[in-house]
Amino acid sequence: MTCFSEGNPIPKYTWESQTDQIHETIRPFVNISRKDAGNYTCYASNEMKRTFGDTEHGFNSSSIYLNIMYPSTIASLEDVSISEGSNLNVACRVQRGNPSYETISWNRQSDSKNWMDSQLTITNVSRADDANYTCTLQNTIIPTIGDKTLTVTSRTIHLNVLYKAHLLNYSVLNSIAHDSVTVAENETVGLQCEIEGNPTPTCGIYNEHNSDMEYHIKYSHNYAKCSINFKASCLHIGVYKCKGANVINKSGYTEKTINIFVECSPRPSPSVPVMDHVFAEIDTSISLYLTALSYPKPNSVLWRKFDGKSWNNVNESNNIRIYQSNLDFGMTIIRASKADFGEYKLFISNAVGSYIHNFYVEYSAASSQSDVHGNTGLIVGLTIVLILLVTIVTVFGVIWYRRRRNHDGPDTDVNNSYQNVSGANSQQNSNDNEYEKIGLNVKDSENTVNGSSKCIEDIEENNEIPVTYEKLADDRKDLNQYSQLHSTKEIQDGNETEKNASSCNEEQHAELSKIYINMKI
Asked: Residue 13 above 70 pLDDT?
């Protein structure tokens, strides 16, 4: 900027601004920027010295505003991820320029669709809206010095539309069937599945026989393809499911199934073991069974038994049950006899072929069946315990009896007899009651010495006659069926007898020392 003024003598110049002061006629600007905008003032002055009179000072000034013009710019924008079905609203944020007048628009690169607004708005976003979007800003600058200038700036974002995994295709290669396919045994089978989704989904084909299959999978943007190949056998009959998902599939997988049928002759299923040899006892139940693999299903099933010379058909009867459920075959002998032991054959046939399975039923005193095995230990244990109890009771009874007999000496002539306390017939009651009450009567004979009656009266007063053996209570009967009946009163030895019947003579002591034990097992 140049400052000029007329005067005599020639004026001096000074440029002043808010930031500096320059004593020059010209105020230069290098690489001008928006920070240089503002008011600038030029001052001109001179000093007039007259010949006559005082010196006079001359002064003048002029100001100018410097307006720096620059275009508007777009602030930073970031990519947007949004779920399918949602509404989109993205603003193109602008940093204002000088002048502030501009035009803003959005453009979609995939189909050149335009939005003449600073807001990018899409209702119900679909996966077709997944694309790049550009915000464009235009400025027109008309300076007082220089030419008119048009400036254009832009920024681009990517709209990432997230959507659930979706199964596009699942089929058997080289087959026009979609849901069910029948192949021959040993034929090569291929299954292929394609799934789309954003984020990129998983993909898998599942069946219980995956272990012997060749498996392939390929991923690309929003796409997954998986496939399997195998040589068909009877084991490959079943349902094959393709399924996949991504983080948007909150409700579960997208999936589809295909049924594979392999034509094959009957054979045992490897997943269900067969008991070829069965050991059993007479009068027990015997079951023979087999689970098969077969397609198509068997059209003929026959059980046969070898009688030593020829094979005879086994038919259902009151003692034999023959059953079939899908591919499960069985025969049950309800109560086995000696004639039921031997060799059996199961014949299974379908349209492809046939299969024969041999069963052997053998006699065993100790059956190998699980219920017999489970009870044998318990039975043996109980038997041993009972034998030991009987032995112990018997031994102690004999020892005690012998000791009493040696102590008491030879039998006397006293007449001793047993009566049923209830007065009923002993034989009859023995059949009705497990235990009987027994009384001991000591009768006075003609040879009894004087004083014996008094001795007996003394004993009766002491409740020592009759000697009673009581019946066991029911609750004890179950605890130990080998129980000795306990007497109400026992005369242990001569000393006790002498104490209880001191008026009796020695002969009476011998008579009263006899003890009678009734024990029933």
From this structure: yes
Provide the pLDDT confidence category of residue 63 given band limits of 50, 70 and 90.
very high
- pLDDT at position 502 is 37
pLDDT digits (tens, 9 = 90+) for 327-341: 999 999 999 999 999
User: Who's near 137: CB < 8 A, 6+ residues apart?
Assistant: 72, 73, 74, 92, 94, 102, 103, 104, 152, 153, 154
Q: Which residues pair with 419 in a beta bridge?
A: 439
Spatial separation of the C-alpha atoms in residues 307 and 339, rounded to whole Å: 9
Residue with tokens 């295909």: 258
Q: Cis bond leading into 99, ω under 30°?
A: yes
Q: What is the pLDDT of residue 474?
A: 45
- CA dihedral angle for residue 333, residue 336, residue 337, residue 340, rounded to 10 degrees: 40
Bridging pattern class, strands 149-172 and 80-83: parallel
Q: Which residue in 241, 164, 232, 234 sits closest to 201, CA to CA?
A: 164
CA distance 21 to 260: 96
Q: What distance in Å separates the CA atoms of residue 261 and residue 185, rounded to the nearest whole number?
A: 9
Decide if 191 contacts 183 (C-beta within 8 A).
Answer: no
Residue 238's nearest CA partner among 227, 230, 247 is: 230
pLDDT of 424 above 70: no
Residues in the chain: 521
514: which strand partners? none
d(CA 419, CA 441): 8
pLDDT of 154-167, one tens digit each? Answer: 999 999 999 999 99
The label of the residue with tokens 């003929």 reads: 300
Residue ranges and CATH numbers for the domains of the chain are: 12-66 (no CATH), 70-265 (2.60.40.10), 269-368 (2.60.40.10), 390-512 (no CATH)
Q: State pLDDT tens for residues 180-222.
A: 999 999 999 999 999 999 999 999 999 876 667 888 999 998 9
Element (H, E) at 155: strand 149-172
Instruction: Give the tokens for residue 34.
Output: 């928006």
pTM above 0.85, yes or no: no
Query: How far is the C-alpha of 218 from the C-alpha of 134, rounded, in Å?
Result: 33
